[in-house]
Amino acid sequence: MSVIKVMSENLANKIAAGEVVEKCASVVKELVENSIDANASKIKINLIKGGLTEITVIDDGIGMDEVDAEMAFLRHATSKIYKDDDLFFINTLGFRGEALPSIASVSEVVLETCKNEVGTKVHIKGGNILEKTPSNGRIGTKITITNLFYNTPARLKYLKSEQTELANTTMFIEKLSLAKPEIAFTLTNNGKEIVKTSGSNNLLKTIHEIYGLQISSKMLEIHALNDDFEIKGYVCKPEILRTNRNHLITFINGRVVRNNEINRAINDAYYTYKPDGKYPVAVINIDTDPTLVDVNIHPTKQDVKISKMQSLYNLIYETIKDALYKSLLIPDAVSKEKVEEVKNSFFPLNDFKDIEGSQTTFDFGSTNKEEVVKNEEFKSLVLYPVGLCLGTYIVCENDEGIYLLDQHAAQERVNYENYLENLKKSEITITDLLIPITIEMNYSDFMSFKEHEKIFNDMGFVFEEFGINTIIIKSHPTWLKTGYEEESIRKIIDLIISLKGNFDAIKFRENVAITLACKMAIKANEHISMLEIEGLLKNLVKCDNPYNCPHGRPTIVKFSIYDLEKMFKRAMD
Ligand code: ZN
Ligand code: ZN
Question: Which of 196, 230, 263 is the last residue of a domain?
């Protein structure tokens, strides 16, 4: 018996053991994927008690004839033989043909289906057909599952609370809706609508239907390809970050997948645009040759392994970074959603333009061209400083509104870009220290330093060993801030000592720049002069990304004149 055959049988057995069905969400998943395979354009999922009491899936797909309807539930009748290829071709959604028998063997199922105007109703419990009758012809298929795991108490006790089961199913349906914007999904629980998408085949509109305007209006379109992959979708501006990774939604060839490397590529692209521990909202479809994708053997898992991952990583990373760079905007202090609500209550629709230009007009089909221009505008933006508040916030104005800047964050950004530029230079100018700086370390730190001393050397530091675990620094690169040489050097040595694993020059440079930028920036509660404010503004405007400090916090927020007028109800007059 060939190796492939053995593996296939193994796989088939696993499925036969019912591993496909673990929770309500996995039942929903199997049923819904069957609906998708049946070319449904509308799929409705009705749950009672999160699916614990009842799961119904109704679709308008092609349906089954009388024979198929019966066969669908009988394992021995499933003639599908797993070929080795099936594992690689994830274009077809699941392990179809095996799921229904698994579900039927541990629950009570009523199937009503109709194909070519012939309707069939089948009632099954524990895998045995109780009843099979003709039924009236309704296009598509309706499956109702009750008494899940009634005959497998061991598994029954693994079902979670209504809330947990519902949360799992909701998350799955949300992701699937985004993967299949051409299908209209409705999910209800106890008669209450939880998810509803229109099947418009417009991804941004679907994002709007799932996440609401506040998020969908802050998404940037991305589209790029290389020899192996094509990526398409939307990523959020850094102002609407989430606290978990659940909203990094990726599909490969239309199938929801989970892959840490892909998530890392998305996250890395936001480096310095967002704080650690915050994650973007991203919906990205990756199209590729299915042979580059290895689906995990376990059919319920969405994990995949990808060949040529580096190529995909680079494509995602570069594309998102570029999109962010081109279209970052000053976040509005007043959320657009609120403005939109207020506006709707005060003005007839066609007055929008006169009040505020096209700024808050939300257009599903828009590209981010407009924002590219705006970013260029920012670079020549003139901000007139008014003063400093609370020793922390710089107040500025211009004919568009009022701006608040966080002085520490703003200067941190200026410093960061300045340090980074210097660190990248291949030609280093160095200055001799009049009084050499002595740095004493403990033994283990000294050993770690010794291991990486070339890095320190390459940065332009001239030093010698001096006694036990001590170095003496004689020259340093000129870009160290005058008066803070020793502090800066100690910070850099600390970073060198803490280096672990493979040395990544780019990451190291960024770390040095971030650390020094923060150290050397004016702190909050430090009053700076008008002259210093002006200098800071001038430098900030020149930055590549003037909107965030290198930790990803905003440097500037805007209160537009319109926002202010709304706040004071002036715009009503
Ligand atoms: Zn800082
Ligand atoms: Zn910061």
Answer: 196
pLDDT per residue over 463-510, tens digit each?
999 888 999 999 999 999 888 899 999 999 999 998 887 788 888 998
Domain range spanning residue 490? 430-477+482-519
User: How many angstroms does the Cα of residue 67 sit away from the middle of ligand 2?
Assistant: 66
pLDDT at 31 over 70: yes
Spatial distance between the Cα atoms of 514 and 412, rounded to a whole number of angstroms: 8
Question: What spacing in Å lies between the alpha carbon of 53 and ligand 2's midpoint?
Answer: 50
Rg (CA), the chain: 30
The closest ligand to the CA of 272 turns out to be 2
Nearest listed ligand to the Cα of residue 519: 1
> Are 158 and 235 within one domain?
no
Q: What's the CA gap between 157 and 287, in Å, rounded? A: 40
Total domains present in the chain: 3
Ligand of minimum distance to the alpha carbon of 553? 2
119, 210: one domain: no
Tell me: the pLDDT tens digits for 415-457?
A: 999 999 999 988 889 999 999 999 999 888 999 999 999 999 9
Same domain, 208 and 188: no
CA of 42: how far to CAs of 184, 186, 197, 569, in Å?
5, 8, 10, 44
In a shared domain, residues 52 and 92: yes
CA 31 centroid distance within chain: 27
